[in-house]
C-alpha cells in the first residue's frame, strides 16, 4: 500500500505530538524565595530555602514571621539562556533570570524538580552611560527527588534545552 499525502500528514502530526508530549508548560506565579521554617533563625546563605506564594509571604509578614531570603551583596542570578546544565541536591533552590524582551515559553520534561516561574517585570538600568529598559522574569528550580529532567526555553529565535540533575 502506497502512502497518501493525507496518511503522511497524519503520521507526521502523530510523531510531532508524541515527541512534544513529554514536555509540559510551566505556569507563571508570584513567588517569594524564603528560608524554611526550621532555618528561619539561622539565615546563612546556605541554610535550607523554599518557594512560597506572595499571598503566603504577606500573610506571614502580617503575623510577624520574617524569613525572607537575601542574596550576598552584588550577586545576580545567571541567565537561563547562558546556562548549559543545572546540578542541585534534593531541597536545594537555584534561581535564574529569563530575558523577556520577546515572548518566551518555559517547559519541563521530568518530575525531579519543581519549577516556579515568576511574572515578567520591567527593569530600568544603566549600561555604558545609557538608560536601558529590560524585561525579565525569574525561574526558581528546587530539587524534589534524585534523577534527571530537562528545562526547555522557547523564544522567537531560539530553543534551548537545559539538562537538570538532582542528586
Describe the SSE topology.
Layout: H1 5-20, E1 24-25, E2 28-29, E3 31-35, E4 49-53, H2 54-62, E5 86-88, E6 93-99, E7 104-109, E8 113-118, E9 121-127, E10 130-143, E11 147-155, E12 159-166
Parallel strand pairs: 2-8, 5-12
Antiparallel strand pairs: 1-7, 3-4, 6-10, 7-11, 8-10, 9-10, 11-12
Task: For the structure shown, list the relevant keywords.
167 residues; five-stranded mixed β-sheet; Immunoglobulin-like; mainly beta; 2 helices
Q: Report how far the terminal alpha carbons are from each other.
A: 50 Å
CATH architecture: Sandwich
- Regions with little confidence, pLDDT below 50 for 5+ residues: none
The CATH class, by name, is: Mainly Beta
CATH-defined fold name: Immunoglobulin-like
* Global outline: globular
Average pLDDT for all residues: 85
Q: Give the structural class.
A: mainly beta
Extended strand count: 12
**Superfamily (CATH H level) name:** Immunoglobulins
Q: Radius of gyration, Cα only, in angstroms?
A: 20 Å
Task: Encode the helix/strand succession as letters.
Answer: HEEEEHEEEEEEEE
Instruction: Tell me the major beta sheet.
Output: 5 strands, mixed
Strand content: 35-45%
Concise synopsis of the structure shown:
By secondary structure, this protein is mostly beta strands. It is 15% helix and 44% strand. The protein is built from two helices and twelve strands, in the order H-E-E-E-E-H-E-E-E-E-E-E-E-E.
Provide an overview of this structure.
The chain is mainly beta and 167 residues long. It has a single domain, classed as Immunoglobulin-like (Sandwich). Helix content is 15%, strand content 44%. The chain has helices at 5-20, 54-62; strands at residues 24-25, 28-29, 31-35, 49-53, 86-88, 93-99, 104-109, 113-118, 121-127, 130-143, 147-155, 159-166. The strands form 3 sheets. The protein has a 5-stranded mixed β-sheet with strand order 1-7-11-12-5, with no helix packed on it. Strands 2, 6, 8, 9 and 10 form a 5-stranded mixed β-sheet that branches. Strands 3-4 form a two-stranded antiparallel sheet. The longest helix has 16 residues, at 5-20.
Amino acid at each position: 500500500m502506497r502512502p497518501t499525502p493525507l496518511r503522511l500528514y497524519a503520521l507526521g502530526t502523530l510523531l510531532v505530538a508524541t515527541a512534544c508530549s513529554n514536555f509540559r508548560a510551566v505556569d507563571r506565579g508570584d513567588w517569594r524565595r524564603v528560608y524554611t521554617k526550621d532555618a528561619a533563625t539561622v539565615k546563612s546563605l546556605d541554610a535550607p530555602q523554599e518557594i512560597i506564594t506572595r499571598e503566603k509571604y504577606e500573610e506571614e509578614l502580617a503575623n510577624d514571621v520574617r524569613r525572607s531570603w537575601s542574596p550576598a551583596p552584588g550577586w545576580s542570578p545567571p541567565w537561563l539562556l547562558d546556562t548549559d546544565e543545572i546540578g542541585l541536591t534534593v531541597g536545594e533552590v537555584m534561581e535564574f533570570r529569563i530575558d523577556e524582551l520577546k515572548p518566551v515559553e518555559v517547559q519541563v520534561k521530568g518530575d525531579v524538580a519543581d519549577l516556579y516561574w515568576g511574572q515578567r517585570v520591567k527593569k530600568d538600568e544603566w549600561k555604558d552611560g545609557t538608560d536601558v529598559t529590560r524585561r525579565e522574569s525569574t525561574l526558581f528550580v528546587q530539587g524534589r527527588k534524585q534523577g534527571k529532567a530537562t528545562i526547555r526555553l522557547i523564544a522567537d529565535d531560539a530553543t534551548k534545552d537545559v539538562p537538570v540533575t538532582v542528586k
